[in-house]
Write a structure and sequence with these properties.
Largest sheet: 9 strands, mixed
Distance between the termini: 13 Å
CATH architecture of the largest domain: Alpha-Beta Barrel
Strand content: 15-25%
CATH class of the largest domain: Alpha Beta
Number of helices: 15
CATH superfamily of the largest domain: Metal-dependent hydrolases
Shape: globular
Radius of gyration: 22 Å
Structural class: alpha/beta
Bound molecules: zinc ion
């Protein structure tokens, strides 16, 4: 159908302020949806549908793409994924930081940081294709694109994690990755900072990133060091992508630890310099605190640390480590040892760095939310509305069309999601309707499980999944497969 046909569309969203995702000026239009796709874009009042939604001049944007998630298991166990849907997110990219639920080798206990996404019983997919089928069977509310984690591959194939993989082990990891890429994975992620992958030299990473690149995938890197060695670690990640001929995504870019505050001037200059020769993208979340497992080695007694979960002392979740240590008459490292296994929020960044990174023209928004934490970092519920409300509207860090671009087309283009991330005829009808004047994050470090304000409606594949802050119960997301997403409408 075209805009000129008299035929009725499934739905017309009328009188919208359209932000098409590309970063250009907004325009007033009616958007027609048919068969799960955007079928026509017309002048206000010009399109007719079997049902009609009056947007009343609210902002209509492509559904947001959360490029940095650890939702691998969450989309199976909690397919409503309300923490993301309520932010206007319609697609999540799972499997970041070297951590993916598949492909797993049965009978192994997942060590930290894989424990962030599940226990042994949850790691049940030996085959990546089985995992994608399980996502489809769970009918999640949002779409899921998944990366293959280096640590997951290492645990499956490397006999001793404290040494580099030998050539036979690299070959077996490559075979697993190849099979996952053929099944529909979007790329390879690593987390050289973490114990299971720390012993890996860049040659090992290059071999695996090459396999991803050969299938059109990306290499996403949680770099080896976000503290004093951040420049060398950025170079290492970009070197790997360049040698492999694979686009590089630098995950949750930050300058961590008081000694490195202010250094984003240097790191972004280095990234820009490297970009002249090779494709590099980055993602960030809009907070000065990070979150991961609680490891005594990360405890420096200098920054505030908030405990997000503890298996041995669940009652301590939501309390500051310093307070817990004082109550127990211990130093913080010893308290961290007693809380093990546990997770924490680390107030490790400074505001000027966060702003500088968010404002960089290649920065996509990724929540890095940890969905299984008892007292999670508020980014899980608030990352997208915080960028739109706090940083865009209230602080003027960028204009609205630019904020939206960082959540939609930039993200889709960077990860090869050609059917999403823009409002254009033929693309998937994943859309969010929100009020730019009221959109805001309500999740805080004290009260982290709070849905956003100002998100009026969310459609996934043309079906309304959220209205006025409530899930409708419609769950039309699915596992995305790289080959199917390579071409637009
Ligand atoms: Zn990470």
């Amino acid at each position: 159908m075209s805009a000129n046909d008299a035929a009725l569309y499934d739905l017309v969203i009328a009188n919208a302020r359209v932000f098409d995702g590309g970063g250009g000026p907004e325009y007033r239009a009616d958007i027609a949806i048919h068969g799960g796709r955007i079928a026509a874009i017309g002048a206000p009042g010009g399109l007719r549908g079997r049902s009609r939604e009056d947007a009343r001049g609210l902002a209509l944007a492509p559904g947001f793409i959360d490029v940095h998630t650890h939702d691998d298991r969450a989309v199976l166990d909690d397919p409503g994924v309300f923490n993301k849907l309520s932010q206007g997110v319609t697609t999540v990219i799972a499997g970041n930081c070297g951590i993916s639920l598949a492909p797993w080798r049965a009978g192994r206990e997942p060590p930290a940081p894989l424990s962030l996404i599940g226990a042994q019983a949850d790691f049940r997919f030996q085959d990546f294709a089985e995992y994608l089928d399980a996502v489809d069977a769970a009918k999640p509310a949002v779409n899921v694109a998944a990366l293959v984690g280096h640590s997951t591959l290492r645990i499956a194939e490397v006999a001793d994690l404290d040494r580099p993989a030998d050539s036979a082990e690299i070959e077996r990891m490559r075979e697993r990755l190849r099979s996952a890429m053929q099944a529909g994975a979007f790329g390879f992620s690593s987390g050289l900072f973490y114990r299971p992958s720390r012993a890996a030299p860049n040659s090992e990473v290059i071999a695996l990133a090459s396999e991803s690149g050969a299938h059109g995938g990306v290499y996403a890197s949680h770099i080896r060091d976000e503290y004093d060695g951040v420049l060398d670690a950025l170079d290492e990640a970009i070197d790997a992508g360049e040698a492999a001929g694979t686009p590089v995504i630098l995950s949750h870019h930050k300058c961590a630890g008081p000694a490195n505050w202010g250094r984003s001037v240097e790191t972004l200059a280095r990234i820009d310099q490297r970009r002249r020769r090779h494709w590099v993208g980055l993602d960030a979340y809009p907070y000065t605190a990070g979150s991961t497992v609680l490891d005594p080695d990360y405890v420096d007694e200098a920054i505030r640390i908030l405990v997000s979960w503890s298996t041995s002392h669940p009652e301590q979740a939501g309390r500051d480590l310093a307070q817990i240590a004082a109550d127990w008459n211990l130093d913080q490292k010893s308290a961290a040892r007693r809380l093990h296994p546990a997770g924490a929020v680390y107030f490790q960044m400074r505001e000027d760095d966060v702003r500088r990174v968010l404002a960089h023209d290649r920065t996509m928004i990724g929540s890095d939310g940890l969905p299984h934490d008892a007292h999670p970092h508020p980014r899980l519920w608030g990352a997208f509305p915080r960028v739109l409300g706090h940083y865009c509207r209230d602080e003027g860090l960028f204009h609205l069309a630019e904020a939206i671009r960082r959540m939609t087309s930039l993200s889709a283009d960077s990860f090869g999601l050609k059917r999403r991330g823009r409002i254009a005829v033929g693309l998937a009808a994943d859309l969010v309707l929100f009020d730019p004047a009221t959109v805001a994050d309500r999740a805080s470090f004290a009260e982290p499980k709070q849905a956003a304000a100002g998100i009026h409606a969310v459609w996934v594949a043309g079906v309304c999944a959220l209205r006025d802050g409530r899930a409708t119960g419609e769950r039309r997301g699915r596992a995305l497969r790289r080959e199917e997403e390579r071409h637009g409408g």
